[in-house]
Every structure is written in C-alpha cells, then in structure tokens.
Amino acid sequence: xxxxxxxxxxxxxxxxxxxxxxxxxxxxxxxxxxxxxxxxxxxxxxxxxxxxxxxxxxxxxxxxxxxxxxxxxxxxxxxxxxxxxxxxxxxxxxxxxxxxxxxxxxxxxxxxxxxxxxxxxxxxxxxxxxxxxxxxxxxxxxxxxxxxxxxxxxxxxxxxxxxxxxxxxxxxxxxxxxxxxxxxxxxxxxxxxxxxxxxxxxxxxxxxxxxxxxxxxxxxxxx
Length: 223
Ligand code: SF4
Description:
It contains twelve helices and no strands. By secondary structure, it is mainly alpha-helical. The two termini are about 25 Å apart. The model has no long low-confidence stretch (mean pLDDT about 95). The chain folds into two domains: about 90 residues, Orthogonal Bundle (Endonuclease Iii, domain 2); about 100 residues, Orthogonal Bundle (Endonuclease III, domain 1), CATH 1.10.340. It is elongated. Bound molecules: iron/sulfur cluster. Iron/sulfur cluster binds next to helix 9 and helix 12. The site of iron/sulfur cluster has 13 residues, from helix 9 and helix 12.
C-alpha cells in the first residue's frame, strides 16, 4: 500500500479541496481561496502576490500576512515597478503586521531585483529566500511540481512514523511516492496544514478523532 497516497486520498475526502494559494481578486483587498485555483494559470500579478505572501508568511500566521497584503494592495504596491521605486523603510511600514517587517521589506526588495530564470537553484541565491519559501514560490506561483515542507508537515510525518530529518528527506517521501503533479502537491500540502491546525496540534493532538489515525504510529499508541 502506498501510505502517502492513501493519506492524501483520506484527507481530500475529509476536508475537500483547499483552494490554495489565496490571492486578492479585482474586488477584494483580502486574499481569498478558490477551489479551482490549483488548475489555473497564474497571472504575473498573482505570481508576484504569491511570492510576496511566501516571504511575509515566514515566522508568522496567515492572519498577519493578510493584513500586510491588504495594506500593499490598497496602496497599489502589489506591483513590481512600484515595489522597485519604494524605499525599504517605506515598504517596511506597510507590512508591519507581518512581524520582522524591516527584514521582510529587504527580502521583498531582493526578490523584486531578481532577474534570472525561476529555478530552485536561482531562487535560493536570493537573500532571504530559504528552501520552504523557494518551494512555495515554485509550487504555488509557478505551478512546478515541488513539494513544500514546513513545520506542520515534519510534525505529521514524524508522528506517522517516517524516519526523516532533513528538508530533502521529508521532501523525497512525497516526490518518491506520488505522481509529480503540481495540483496534487498543491492540495496535499494545504491539506496537511489543515490537519495540523485542526487535529495534529503541537501539544495535545486530537488523535482519537483524527481522519488518518489508522496510518499513524504515534496516534495508535495513544488511543
Ligand atoms: S493520529 Fe494524532 S499524531 Fe497522528 S496525525 Fe493524527 S493527530 Fe497527528
């Protein structure tokens, strides 16, 4: 049995399509989810917004990112030209809600200055873009089939019983067990985040009610 694929099917059945990555629309300042978004081609504006969101979400909650995105959009700053013109200090003011705002403003500016081909290797050369951010940009902004690993994913997989330590070891679990398909990777990562927030919490996971209990060593040992 392909446990990774079985877990995916179980989570999709339980939670449904998650519609990541949320982006603002013509009539909305707040990013919204769209169940069909994984299948759609991204506009240049959406790619930029997703990349900015991926930087802003480092070490903070999505709620705080939403406020920063709203501020940027309201002031016409979800725009490459405008972001190039604005100073780091001014930009930092608009994104205060996301925390570490001075650093993040510098990171956004560094990203905007990047001119090369969008590959993982090149993204990782940009100051402030680590593996999780690079992979989020590739998967969610550019529809590349690269699995995003975050703290939620590591927690869930470790509890299930996978013996992985490094980012790449966790990533390979998905790359080796699933069809390399950006729609599946998009949904699966979003579903794991949902599972982590609702069931597989850091402290006191709700194993008894967890939809993937039957696949999980830790859960089975607890109930
Ligand atoms: S059974 Fe418990 S530990 Fe395992 S994934 Fe579910 S909530 Fe997490």
